[in-house]
Amino acid sequence: MLISLFLISYVHAYMRDEWHSGIDESVVRDFKTIKSGPYTFCRHPLFASVMVGMFGFYFALPSFFSLISLFVGMICLIVQANHEERSLSEIDDYQAYQANTRKWPISLPIGN
User: Fold this and answer.
1) Full 3-state SS string of 16-45
2) pTM to 2 decimals?
3) Which end of the chain has fewer beta carbons closer than 10 Å to its terminal beta carbon, N or C?
4) How far apart are CA 104 and CA 98, in angstroms?
């Protein structure tokens, strides 16, 4: 969970003013694709970092509740990532970034 905290803090600091919660027209209109730093390795390093924390929570407190929290949390992050990518897919710069950068740091059987 500490690794997750470090990664989340790093990605937030790296994004600076480009961090937004959710997607709306103003975000899409003013969107700047970040292709360096943690965004070199995957398109969703913040979501991947949160997933690391969820796995850490499950391993620290293994229970039915933490297992359900892990699955529900991962599903929510994957759905959010897919929603964001649909919204940004009309931007040429983002299309090129999608073609050259994997979605997640490791291969997942869902949504590449």
Assistant:
1) HHHCCCCCCHHHHHCCCCCCCHHHHCCCCH
2) 0.85
3) C
4) 11
